[in-house]
């Protein structure tokens, strides 16, 4: 069986980048050099930032929270919604003073936003203090770009328009010990009419199962207990690599990796959720009973306009099928409010699907017009005030449902993988249930990385609280 056809970056190229890493390390020898990376957007961007952190750490830089103390400042950007873009411009503007005070620092911007020509032009003209601009397809080339920048006063701009090959073997420094993100495929072929991702992340490329399993095995050996397999649409994993591969097969392979106790994945497109995958979630003991299945809208008419390729009924049928196979499963979703042409009736269909599915939680977004996507050309854009009012109604309904579902945990004993100290309270430890509920409890650092049984004693909309009983 031929396992892959995905094109990888040649190993000579990877070795070349490692030489640049070593050259910068020599430059930094004996000096206390620091870096900061600020990430916008999804977990895939977080994972890319972990790669940048890995490269920087191998170059002899240490991480700092303070940009003022940084020698290298990176913004890893997102362009899925306009808000994220505006924030990046705000941050870049604020760095101008710092660059005037410390001209020797390097400011770099990368990520999805940079794959748009007009953005790069704008940064070139308005943010002259930015030293390096690079995109999503050539992230692995960062050592070479940084080396070039440190050795010249010219600004470096390196954006690849075409879909890049998959880079294996570059360093990575992960944020969390107990949990890790593992990107299993890059890009998206779906062209939902509102979404910019296929234009900036390119066509789908799957990693090979053996590369993924090797990475997960290393994580298992180093104390990681939970992996989240990432892709824009993991259900089409392997389709690009040709024959015999499927995401279900990948799940069962990862399920066999020693040390790993929990497997999560996101995101699944409803049009590609196969029976094979449903059975894999049911049958692989480490795969958590949680499915993130973005519905986007409850109106079949709007779903058609969105090019989602399923109807409301099809989605509801899927939910029923999954629930009958895995009764304890938790569903979460993404919803867009105010897609062009969305009427009050369409919006009511979205409220209706919330009530029918009863999602554990939903990420809710105001539709944001993205230049270059078909929906941006639609003449019937919804006024901001209407979007906001609908958004508030949606959040109110979802919050009630999330709270009601959480209430059903009251008094139950539930297994929680302990992640560490809770951010919200010094006294509390935090972890998640298999169904992805955040649980806070009094604990101790020895519990970190183990699964404990917590009796739930208090319930909130976003989290649960309880007492460890085992
Ligand atoms: N406007 C609002 N939300 C969007 N998303 C993607 N594109 C847009 C847009 N133009 C949302 C979708 C997707 C999530 C990651 O972001 O709900 O599932
Ligand atoms: Fe965007 Fe649709 Fe691809 Fe998700 S599946 S990344 S929403 S185009």
From TrEMBL:
GO cellular component, one term: cytosol
Family: Belongs to the methylthiotransferase family. MiaB subfamily.
Keywords associated with the record: 4Fe-4S, Cytoplasm, Iron, Iron-sulfur, Metal-binding, S-adenosyl-L-methionine, Transferase, tRNA processing
Reaction it catalyzes: N(6)-dimethylallyladenosine(37) in tRNA + (sulfur carrier)-SH + AH2 + 2 S-adenosyl-L-methionine = 2-methylsulfanyl-N(6)-dimethylallyladenosine(37) in tRNA + (sulfur carrier)-H + 5'-deoxyadenosine + L-methionine + A + S-adenosyl-L-homocysteine + 2 H(+)
Domain MTTase N-terminal span(s) in chain numbering: 33-151
Primary enzyme class: transferase
Domain Radical SAM core, chain residue ranges per copy: 174-404
UniProt-recorded Gene Ontology molecular function terms: 4 iron, 4 sulfur cluster binding; metal ion binding; tRNA-2-methylthio-N(6)-dimethylallyladenosine(37) synthase activity
Subunit structure: Monomer.
Binding site for [4Fe-4S] cluster 1: 42, 78, 112
Positions that bind [4Fe-4S] cluster 2: 188, 192, 195
Its EC number(s): 2.8.4.3
Listed InterPro entries: Elp3/MiaA/NifB-like_rSAM, Methylthiotransferase, Methylthiotransferase_CS, Methylthiotransferase_N, Methylthiotransferase_N_sf, MiaB_methiolase, rSAM, rSAM_horseshoe
Any one Pfam family match given in the protein's UniProt record, by short name: TRAM
Organism superkingdom: Bacteria
Signal peptide start and end residues: none
Cofactor(s) required, per the database record: [4Fe-4S] cluster
Name the UniProt record assigns to this protein: tRNA-2-methylthio-N(6)-dimethylallyladenosine synthase
Free-text cofactor note: Binds 2 [4Fe-4S] clusters. One cluster is coordinated with 3 cysteines and an exchangeable S-adenosyl-L-methionine.
TRAM domain span: 407-470
PANTHER family: CDK5 REGULATORY SUBUNIT-ASSOCIATED PROTEIN 1, MITOCHONDRIAL TRNA METHYLTHIOTRANSFERASE CDK5RAP1
Subcellular location: Cytoplasm
């Amino acid at each position: 069986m031929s396992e892959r056809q995905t094109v990888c970056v040649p190993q000579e190229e990877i070795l070349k980048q490692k030489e640049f890493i070593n050259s910068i390390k020599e430059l930094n020898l004996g000096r206390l050099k620091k870096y900061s990376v600020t990430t916008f957007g999804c977990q895939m961007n977080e994972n890319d930032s972990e790669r940048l952190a890995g490269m920087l750490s191998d170059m002899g830089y240490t991480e700092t929270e303070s940009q003022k103390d940084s020698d290298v400042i990176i913004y890893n950007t997102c362009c899925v919604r306009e808000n994220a873009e505006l924030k990046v411009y705000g941050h870049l503007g604020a760095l101008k003073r710092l660059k005037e005070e410390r001209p020797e620092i390097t400011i770099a911007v990368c990520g999805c936003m940079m794959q748009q020509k007009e953005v790069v032009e704008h940064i070139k003209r308005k943010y002259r203090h930015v030293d390096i601009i690079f995109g999503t397809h050539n992230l692995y080339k960062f050592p070479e770009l940084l080396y070039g920048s440190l050795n010249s006063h010219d600004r470096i701009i390196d954006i690849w328009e075409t879909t890049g090959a998959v880079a294996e073997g570059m360093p990575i420094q992960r944020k969390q010990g107990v949990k890790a993100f593992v990107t299993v495929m890059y890009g998206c072929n779906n062209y939902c009419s509102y979404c910019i991702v296929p234009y900036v992340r390119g066509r789908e490329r799957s990693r090979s199962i053996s590369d993924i399993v090797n990475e997960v095995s290393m994580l298992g050996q180093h104390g990681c207990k939970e992996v989240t397999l990432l892709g824009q649409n993991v259900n089409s994993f392997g389709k690009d690599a040709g024959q015999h591969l499927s995401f279900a097969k990948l799940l069962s392979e990862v399920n066999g990796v020693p040390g790993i106790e929990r497997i999560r994945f996101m995101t699944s497109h409803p049009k590609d959720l196969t029976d094979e995958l449903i059975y894999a979630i049911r049958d692989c003991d480490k795969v958590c009973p949680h499915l993130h299945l973005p519905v986007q809208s409850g109106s079949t008419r709007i779903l058609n306009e969105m090019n989602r390729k399923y109807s409301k009924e099809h989605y509801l049928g899927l939910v029923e099928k999954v629930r009958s196979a895995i009764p304890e499963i938790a569903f979460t979703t993404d919803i867009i409010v105010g897609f062009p042409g969305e009427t009050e009736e369409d919006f009511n269909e979205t409220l209706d699907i919330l009530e029918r599915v009863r999602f554990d939680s939903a990420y809710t977004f105001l539709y944001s017009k993205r230049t270059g996507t078909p929906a941006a050309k639609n003449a019937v854009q919804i006024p901001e005030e209407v979007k906001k009012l609908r958004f508030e109604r949606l959040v109110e309904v979802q919050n009630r449902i999330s709270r009601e579902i959480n209430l059903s945990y009251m008094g139950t004993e539930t297994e929680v993988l302990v992640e560490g100290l809770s951010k919200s309270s010094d006294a509390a430890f935090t972890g998640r249930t298999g169904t992805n509920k955040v649980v806070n409890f009094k604990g101790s650092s020895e519990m970190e990385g183990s699964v404990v049984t917590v009796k739930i004693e208090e319930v909130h909309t976003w989290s649960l609280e309880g007492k460890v009983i085992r």
